[in-house]
Every structure is written in C-alpha cells, then in structure tokens.
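Q: How would the structure tokens look for this protein?
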Amino acid sequence: MIYVGPLQVDERIVERAAKMLREPEGLEGLLSWMRSQGEDKIGSMKVLVRVSGMNLGQAKRAVHLSKAWADMRSTDDVIQDSLQQAAQELSRGDGHPRVA
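A: Here is the predicted structure in token form.
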C-alpha cells in the first residue's frame, strides 16, 4: 500500500476535477490542468482518488503514465529503482546499502 498522507485536497480543485473528468479531454485534460494550477504528482493522485473511484495505486499509475507528467517519468523511474534497490540491500545485508 502507498501512503501519501491525509487525502485532504482543496475542495475547489476537487469540484472542478469531477466536472473535468466528464469533459472530452477526460483524464489527460484534468491532469494537465491540475499541473498548470500548481498541483504536484501526489496532489494529483489524491484528487483522482477522490473523484474517479480509483484506488491509490491506480491513481499513481495514471499520473505517472500521463502525458501531463511525461517529462518527469524517467527521473521518477530512476528514483523508484534506487529506492527499491536500497530496500532490497537493507533486507538482505548488514543494514547498510552500498553507494554506487
């Protein structure tokens, strides 16, 4: 399970997001709009959970794979891979991950 803190978001964003999901641009239009309004990826995930019926894992995947956040994908993938590697090293070794 992914924990991103309380699912509190600006209610004005939530109201607009619910309407935008029904518009022709759908999810991509909504994610682009939220980013233009200063929402970060985590905030976007929280809004999707609130308005779309997605669970948090589905929202994370939708945001990560969206066109709106495509410019961050490779950086985020590197961070995710590094965190997974560190977690694996911690779980099998002396508790000290190796630094490359």
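The radius of gyration is 16 Å.

The mean pLDDT is 86.

Upvote if useful.
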